[in-house]
């Protein structure tokens, strides 16, 4: 997916439809190894219209609360290239041995995360983090005495330490918001 070259369009402020910050308090996670293909838009390869999973594979929904999901993309200038560090921080508001076992699996696996922005104009609702390399569990904090997290698990997923993504988070979009959301939910375990 080559997006090289010179800048080619104006970026204007639209006061009738301003960007609204923030994300919904949910993150959708997929095992990177379960993704067999991305279907990219032929006109704009930054747009992914569908995610193909291995037979029987599904993604998973991690629900949060308020501002507990915090995605971020950071430009990283390298000696011989330009890359992007993808990160998705979120809080798991559950306890128990099954939760701990699932979190430990995050520590030995790479995942791809889809987040839903509050701003849903055009194709801006959904973004895919870790599209090419996946995200790794970087840090995990569980402090039962922390008044901010109230003892929940604070999870930090980032691009691998030595390698960064070649592109910004991809856009997940097919036709319109309802179609895209339905397609995403069809990939998630009920």
Care to describe what's here?
- The chain has 190 residues and is mainly beta.
- It has one domain.
- The chain contains two helices and eleven strands.
- It has helices spanning 97-106, 177-186, and strands spanning 23-31, 35-40, 47-53, 60-63, 69-77, 82-92, 111-117, 126-129, 136-142, 153-158, 170-172.
- The protein has a seven-stranded mixed sheet with strand order 2-3-11-8-7-1-4.
- A hairpin with a 4-residue loop joins strand 5 (69-77) and strand 6 (82-92).
- The two termini are 33 Å apart.
Task: State the main characteristics.
190 residues, mainly beta, 11 strands, 38% strand, globular
Précis, in short:
It is built from 2 helices and 11 strands, in the order ββββββαβββββα.
Order of helices and strands: EEEEEEHEEEEEH
Head-to-tail CA distance between termini: 33 Å
List segments where confidence is low: pLDDT < 50 over at least 5 consecutive residues: none
Quaternary structure state of the chains depicted: single chain
- The radius of gyration computed from the alpha-carbon positions, rounded to a whole number of angstroms, is 17 Å
**What is the percent of helical residues?**
10-25%
The domain count comes to: 1
Strand content: 35-45%
The helix/strand class is mainly beta
Assign an overall shape.
globular
Write the layout of secondary structure elements.
Layout: E1 23-31, E2 35-40, E3 47-53, E4 60-63, E5 69-77, E6 82-92, H1 97-106, E7 111-117, E8 126-129, E9 136-142, E10 153-158, E11 170-172, H2 177-186
Parallel strand pairs: 3-11
Antiparallel strand pairs: 1-4, 1-7, 2-3, 5-6, 6-10, 7-8, 8-11, 9-10
